[in-house]
Amino acid sequence: METELIIEGCNFPPLSARGCNQELTVVEQGTFRRTVNGDLAYLGPENHKYRSVITCEDKVTLVNEGALARGSMVRIGCLQRLWQQGNGRVVLEREAVAGSIAAMDAAQNPVVVDVIDSKTVNVVSDANVFVSYRPWLSMRVISLTLRTDEWGLKAGWRLELEEI
């Protein structure tokens, strides 16, 4: 396996996806306003969506015919991990990629996690722990850029996505 990144419907040719990087940014959906008392209030949804930029430099580019056309819907098994704090039964904010859930306590000791399903885990600890996982995100392709350095024998790609 060259990468942990998963793009459903898109295959990675050999030497196309080693050392990928992913950046998640929260999409701006609301606004801030001041009340008559001068307090800052947020006017927007409480849940949030992500924008993602995935880049990779390798020997060849990825398969892009059709699957990654602008506007296409894809499901991404992210590289970027999300973290939540909790104890007992923890409901994850997003569906987790199989095998990616882990937990630790404040002293960085591993904590046993009993996975119930892709969004729910039982944490075997009385203390608050930190649960980490790689999320699945349903996204639309905003843009795809392919690069080739002929004499340097390198290729690369950049994929911009936004959560649906």
Notes on the structure:
The chain is mainly β and 164 residues long. It folds into two domains: 1-80 and 136-164, Elongation Factor Tu (Ef-tu), domain 3 (Beta Barrel), CATH 2.40.30; 82-134, no CATH class. The chain is 0% helix and 49% strand. It is built from no helices and 14 strands. The protein has strands at residues 6-7, 21-26, 31-34, 40-43, 50-58, 73-77, 82-86, 88-91, 102-104, 113-117, 120-123, 129-133, 136-149, 154-163. The strands form four sheets. It has a six-stranded antiparallel β-sheet, with no helix packed on it. Strands 7-12-9 form a three-stranded antiparallel β-sheet, with no helix packed on it. It is globular.
List keywords for this structure.
164 residues, 49% strand, Elongation Factor Tu (Ef-tu), domain 3, 6-stranded antiparallel β-sheet, 3-stranded antiparallel β-sheet, 2 domains, mainly beta
What is the gist of this entry?
The chain is mainly beta.
CATH third-tier fold name of the largest domain = Elongation Factor Tu (Ef-tu), domain 3
> Helical proportion?
under 10%
How would you spell out the order of helices and strands?
EEEEEEEEEEEEEE
The figure for the number of domains is 2
Share in β-strands: over 45%
Could you give the count of β-strands? 14
SS-based class = mainly beta
Low-confidence stretches: none
Tell me the layout of helices and strands.
Elements: E1 6-7, E2 21-26, E3 31-34, E4 40-43, E5 50-58, E6 73-77, E7 82-86, E8 88-91, E9 102-104, E10 113-117, E11 120-123, E12 129-133, E13 136-149, E14 154-163
Antiparallel strand pairs: 1-6, 2-5, 3-4, 5-14, 6-13, 7-12, 8-11, 9-12, 10-11, 13-14
